């Protein structure tokens, strides 16, 4: 089972349990390891969501390259436990709720952006610059500890993200029906490449795979063979290949499943759970992001960072003092 967990997690009246790893500006074994959003760049230009400067190759199940999936986030705690995530805006990352079952205190977590490698070099200054502390973890109120339904959570970062060619937000839609049966959507993560492996092998680079999104009727039909019971509800969907040739696995939890439309990329699913890895008739199961669009929009809009009045008071004090003493040069570093 996953070992999951954070100033603290807000479960909004619900506890959690492990599971798998308009546009808004577990597997049974779980998917953890064994272990239109918009912004502005430095120059003031708009940073619309869903864009990338580095194009993907039409292949699946291979190592990707840095910048191909600029919204990909790596969520980690000190002991090495990790999950995937998706950057929605300068202060918000979306992931799976079950990732925070064990580590519920937000101060235990940090988010790495803009890096391809699971274990960046100690000398990689760029990685440290693009590493962000987590301020709050907000789990969807409909997520139940004994169910894989509504397996979704938002992370508010302690500081704002700086966008670049390698770090950009992904779009979110209120409806994603247009992506059903699409065979050209993509999933990314640092999870195991085979069911009996414990982690992605060296050099520990992000993996990408192309897969098909199924509707829930087809998905439940596949899961009913031979168990005879429905498994996938409306808060989820499944994706992969019916023959099991493409799938997520342990360690991919919380990562993004994305599809493109008219040149923009949209976050359609969050890696949640499954039965085994790459089993025929057992595609991976994902949290349906569009089903939670309103909740995501509400949390992000109602949680705008408040002004730091202590810094403002300090600035006013310095300015007042400058009228009494020699000129004081004040440099704001926001």
UniProtKB/TrEMBL annotation:
Molecular function per GO: serine-type endopeptidase activity
PROSITE patterns named in the record: TRYPSIN_DOM (PS50240), TRYPSIN_HIS (PS00134), TRYPSIN_SER (PS00135)
CDD domains in UniProt: Tryp_SPc
Keywords in alphabetical order: Disulfide bond, Hydrolase, Protease, Serine protease, Signal
GO biological process: proteolysis
Superkingdom as given in the UniProt entry: Eukaryota
Pfam families (alphabetical): Trypsin
Domain Peptidase S1: 58-301
InterPro entries: Peptidase_S1_PA, Peptidase_S1_PA_chymotrypsin, Peptidase_S1A, Trypsin_dom, TRYPSIN_HIS, TRYPSIN_SER
Cited SUPFAM superfamilies: Trypsin-like serine proteases
Region (Disordered): 1-44
Alphabetical list of PANTHER family matching this protein: ACROSIN-RELATED, SUPPRESSOR OF TUMORIGENICITY 14 PROTEIN HOMOLOG-RELATED
Designated name of the protein: Serine protease 41
Species, as recorded: Prolemur simus (Greater bamboo lemur)
